[in-house]
Amino acid sequence: MKLNKTLLAFAISAVFLTACTDDEKDASLTDGSQNSASGINDASTNGLGNGSGINGSGLSGNGDYASTLGPEFNDPNNPLSKRTIYFMLDSSEVMPDFIPVINAHAQYLVANPTQKITLEGNTDERGAPEYNIALGEQRAKSVASMMKIQGVSESQVNVVSYGEEKPAAFGNDESAWEKNRRTEIVYLPK
Amino acid sequence: MIFIRAILWVVVLGLNIQNSFAELNIEITQGTESATPLAIVPFGSDSAPVNVSGVVNADLERSGYFKMMDERAMSNQPSTASAINFKEWQGLGQNYMVIGQVVSAGPGQYNVQFQLFDVYKSGQILGYKMSSSGADLRKTAHYISDLIFEKLTGKKGVFGGRIAYVTTNSQRVHQVQIADADGYNPLTVASSIEPLMSPAWSPDGKKLAYVSFERKTAAIYIQTLASGERVKVAEFPGINGAPAWSPDGTRLALTLSKDGSPDIYVLNLSSRALTKLSKSMAIDTEPSWSPDGSSIVFTSNRGGNPQIYVVSSQGGQEKRLTFSGGYNASASFSADGRSLVMVQGSGNNYRIAVMDMGTHAVNVLTSGPSDESPSFAPNGSMILYAAKKGSVGFLSAVSLDGKMQQKIVFNSGEVREPSWAP
């Protein structure tokens, strides 16, 4: 039983104090952008099992930086207000409906070369979790390559896949699944 | 900052403790008719803190090999050999029976003894006496289950084993936990508000490799369970996923996408040398070693949809193994190398299937609809997997013949990616 206590005491915990809500249905309010820049500051102590993942600097408030960039990001008639690209089952091909959205973001990034984004690839819950990580990455990379063709520089675009691990909608039916097969365009603070 | 950290630490520890005592329920969801009748007579006991015979009964029932006698049908409950009337137990249709005692032996100490009898031969075939602390009585009970199981089936028992898995609670806190094979005594190994994935046991059972997104990017860590010490072994650009230990514990197979598409690599854990094994432009992931370490199976969609392929662990020709169904993934071998378990998807139905490596015949074991992440018990008799009904995720186990199923229900949150310790 001594072992158990040791394990408990050394349990590595990387809980951030983010204002993360349970309901992430509004895709523009992803928690992905909250700590992207400032949350990574503790690499030197990683590997010691003493709670090294905990840091208070991730407290950046509301993570939706895009909405602070200009009125066009909040105008429902402007494609910049749309920052989620949806996909068909087991596919990473961008559907025609979303090409204007990707183009609008690409043009903004070309005009603002110091602005950086993260493309977060996601899948629905079905199938193998690690296969879904790979599928999510393909979805993010499809969007990235369309942006790069239009002149967005390599250094402006970061890609990460969360696979099925960060659902936007909970539920085990097609209405939830289709909301989860997505790439989110997350603007980073400058 | 230090102040904030101190507060967080308390909050986090609180979470861990709460989750570590989360209650579990085990339900037998499907039984089998051909199982051997076995009676575990409730042990004579003076105030032991654990119902030892109850744990043994539940273990053996879960295995699927035995049809356990309901204790309410026992007209008497002998705890010594001389008190057994074998004719009576023959009349009750029992092939084997177990009696025993748990006797106090000083503060917090107990002497446990049991005897296994062949009811038709009217003779003892196994008997042990052991001492145990009160805290270890559950472990002792699992050990008794292992001894009885091995005597009656010829296979090593797995009741004293452990499992690892990932839980996610309603606040979306992810935890890697380990627990006894029956889900009791859960302990938190790692906790993060960002995803944790793919816990993999080292062959000696002392370490876990797992994937953590705690730094907003995927990294693979190896953590020593006893000390909590951990080492980051992979944090390349892109995917760092699907860690799998070589059977000798010296190498880790993993998935990296640093060169473009996800490929299978082997990382030498002492030299840190990295060898690329698969070279397709498609998705290659979920490596798993053959028990002799000579080959690695993995999932690839190079043929248009996910299928299982095999490659020598030294590299070389990659060969497709699965041809039936449009979705085969998450393959891993049984310890004897004769069976390969996998997830087989068809439409919206994902089920656990086993391929016979001799004949390549595939047997579907479960009914779905959301069964994933299968892991063989070390003795090959059971397969642990993650299942979902509605939006509730839980662990389930199925016997290799598919006849016996049980589920382990966690009362808090969802539980996924189970892995049986070697």
Q: Nutshell version of this structure?
A:
The complex is a heterodimer of chains A (about 190) and B (about 425). With about 190 residues, chain A is of the alpha+beta class.
Plain-language structure description:
The complex is a heterodimer of chains A (190) and B (422). Chain A has helices spanning 2-10, 99-111, 129-149, 174-180, and strands spanning 12-14, 84-86, 117-122, 157-163, 182-187. Chain A has 190 residues and is of the alpha+beta class. A 4-stranded mixed beta sheet of chain A has the order 2-5-3-4. In chain A, α2 (99-111) crosses α3. The longest helix of chain A has 21 residues, at 129-149. Residues 1-62 of chain A have low confidence and may be disordered. Chain B has 422 residues and is mainly beta. Chain B is built from 4 helices and 31 strands. Chain B has helices spanning 2-20, 52-62, 86-91, 137-153, and strands at residues 24-30, 36-40, 44-45, 66-68, 96-104, 109-118, 123-133, 162-168, 174-180, 187-192, 196-201, 207-212, 219-224, 230-234, 240-245, 251-256, 263-268, 274-276, 284-289, 295-300, 307-312, 319-320, 327-333, 339-346, 349-356, 362-364, 372-376, 382-389, 392-399, 405-410, 414-420. In chain B, the strands form 7 sheets. In chain B, strands 2, 3, 4, 5, 6 and 7 form a 6-stranded mixed beta sheet that branches. In chain B, strands 1-30-29-28-27 form a 5-stranded antiparallel beta sheet, with no helix packed on it. In chain B, strands 10-9-8-31 form a 4-stranded antiparallel beta sheet, with helices on one face. The longest helix of chain B has 19 residues, at 2-20.
